[in-house]
Structures are given as C-alpha cells and as structure tokens.
Amino acid sequence: MRVTEIIQLEQEEKRKRLIWSVTVRFVVIFIVLILVLLGYVLGLRFELPGILTAVTIVFLYNIVSHYFYAQKHHPVFWPYLGIVLDMAVITLVVHYTGGIASVFLPLYLLQIVGTNVHFSKSAGPLNFLVGGGAFVGLLVAEYHGAIPVVQVWPGVTSMYNYPELVIMVAFTMVLLMGVSTYRSGYVVSSLQKVERKLAGVNDELVEMNKSFITANKRLRELDQLKTEFISVASHQLRTPLSAIKWVLKMIMDGDVGPISKDQKDLLKKGYQSNERMISLINDLLNVSRIEEERFQYRFVDASLIDIIDRLLDETKMMMDKKSIFFERKVEHHIPLMRLDPQKMHLAVQNLLDNAIKYTPNGGKIQLKVYRDKDDVVCTIQDSGVGIPDDQKDRVFSKFFRGDNVIRMQTQGTGLGLFISRSIIEKHKGTISFESQEGKGTSFTFRVPINADRQ
Ligand code: ADP
Questions:
Q1: pTM
Q2: Which of 12-16, 361-365, 379-383 has the lowest mean pLDDT?
C-alpha cells in the first residue's frame, strides 16, 4: 500500500470516528433528558430551565458537527471545541442537579473515556484538565457561595456543610478522571498499535499472494510443457513398439520358420515386456489427453453389463492362473444407459485388473452390479493386500503406488485409478473405495441412469 493511500485511509477512519462520536452524543443527550425527567417526576427539584438550555447548546453544536463531518471538511479546532463544550455543559447539568450531590457526576468519566476512544490519545489531557478544572471550580464556587447551590434532595442537609466531604469528593473525582484518562488512552493506543501491525501483516499477505500467483502461473506453464512433452514422446514411442509387437508375434507363431521351445520362451518374455511398455505409453497418452481436455467421448445407448461381461471374458485367464475364486452378482433389468463403451471398458478394466493384481493366489473377487434408485452401482471387492491407511488420500493421484504393492514388486504405472476416476466423472458418476490393509479392498462406482451426457 502506498503512503498516500495509508494517509487517506487513516483520515477516512478518523472521520468515521467523529461521526460516530456525534451519534453517541445524541444518545447521551437523550438518556440525560430521560433521567432528568425521571428525577423530576420522582420529586427531585432539578432546575429544569438551566438544564434544558445547557442541553440545547450541546444539541445545536452536535447538529453543526454532523454537517461538518459529513462534508469531510471541518475547522481544526472544531472537535476540541466539542470537548470544552461537553465539559462545560456537564458541569452546568451537575450544577443544576445538585452540584456535589448530583447523580450526573459519572458523566465526566463517560466523556473522558468516550472522547479518548473516538479521537486520539492527545484529546485525553485536554479532557482531564478542562473537566477536572470545571468540576473543582464548581465545588469551590458553590462551597464559598459564589454561586447558589441547587437543593434537589428535599429535607436533606447540604453536603457543603462538611468541608472534609467536599475535599474527599473533589479528590476522588479528579483521581478517577486521571485514571480514566490514562487507562483509556493506554487501551486505545494499544489497539492502534495492533491495528497498524495488522495492516502490516495484511500488506505482507498481499505481497505473498502476488508471488504465489506468479509462481503458480509458472508451474502451470511447466506442467503444460511436461504434458506436451509426454504426449509427443508417447506418440513417437508407440509406433516402433507396435512394430516390435507384431514382429515378435509373427516369429513366435512360426510365420517365418520353426523355432525351438527355448527360443519361444525367450521371445514370450520379450513380448510381455513390450506389452507392458505399450500399456504404460497408453496410460501416459490417456493422462495427457485428459489433462489437455482432448479425451474425446462418444456417448451411445449401451449396456454396462455387456461391457463388464466382455471384460470378464478377457480377464478369466488371468484369474484362473492365480486360482482366484470369482463371483458375479448382477441384478436383472439393469437398463441401457448413455455411455462411451470404450472408455467405460477402460475404467472398469483398471479396477478389475487391480483387484486381480493385488489379490494373492487363491484369493476371492466379487463383482456386484445393482440398481439404487436412479443410479447403477458397481462394486468390485477383493480379498487382497489392501491400501495402507496413511496413503488412502492419495489413491486417485497420478503416479501413486502404495508402499505395500511396491514391496510386492508388482508392475504398475499408478495412472489407472486417475484415468478411471476421470472417465466415471465424465459419465456424471462418482467413485469411492473402502480398504483394510491385509484384508482387502472394494472399489464402488455409481453412475446416474438418466444424466445428460453428450
Ligand atoms: P497401478 O498401475 O499401480 O495399479 P493404479 O492407479 O491403478 O495404478 O492404482 C494406484 C495404486 O492404488 C496401486 O499402485 C495400489 O497401491 C493401490 N490400489 C489400487 N487398487 C487396489 C486394490 N484393489 N488393492 C490394493 N491396492 C490397490
């Protein structure tokens, strides 16, 4: 924030406080009038004309003040005149309501605390001097009979008959005024210090925010570059890998002449490694398409059950190889939905592959599909290694692989669940999981039947 802006803000803040002080003064005038009226009704002999004149003076001053403060311009002395006037009017009210025995003595303290809060610390000493001087002057003048004492308490002996009492009251009031001036000034200046500190902290936060925005922009640019790089590199790699795949397959199938069993076993290993690389490249390409929003969807009316059954055919061999006990529980009457069959196949495939991959030999997998109101829900539950509790919040992040599965030396890219979640969400669905390490995992996705999918 620039210095001129700070000064402007401080001035605006001062003006607000001055306007607020005008409001408070109106309220105090109103309360004093009510109390005077109450005392009068109760039979106390207040001097009403004098009180009303004093209150009218301060009332008029307040109207002019309001006009000045609303205009943003006022004579410099004006607020200080208010202090002097307030103390003078309070002294008059105190005089007309019994002088030393007046119930309005606390008005002095109210004025001191109020002014310190609304103005600045510098108004405190002026308040104290004017208020203390006026009050002590009033007591001295009334005690010596220079001005007549208003006897408001019928039948009660005047306190001025007891000089010690007069001295005690004068001393106590002046002391209280001093303490109020000091304490309220102290509180206000502490608050101002805190305010200034907060303003400084705020400025620092604004600066930090600016650098975060710049850093964030830079990171986005780098991220974009990385995605583009992956996309280009993957495309370039896929073509030769596909060529290798077909060459190996032809040799393995004996299309170019007979090969021995050992040769075939070796070629098979090469073929499988090549397949893993193709699958990694495909995952990378899919992720970069998702991030660049180039993952094209073609929604048609399709059956989720058909997609799942085709997938089960494809994975049956893998499950048999691991002697996994598989259970399929599919409700009848699951309606057709608008789906992208290829993408949905990929999403469920990732979940099923994981269940098979992370379930030890002889384990169990259950696939359930059922309708829940307007959604179709699919759950794939396994009795596998589970996901460690402290890593559960990262499961759908790119490249996440659990510590336990890394230790098992299973193959994986950590991209499957990221892709599956993106696909399910594009179908306006949700995906979640429950897992207990060592016991098993169940992934559930839910897709609305009638959502608007274009
Ligand atoms: P990956 O290629 O490693 O399988 P995924 O994105 O499909 O990548 O899964 C991310 C990680 O989530 C896995 O590496 C594994 O730690 C954990 N995971 C996913 N599914 C299961 C499951 N059914 N059982 C245990 N862990 C799982």
A1: 0.57
A2: 12-16
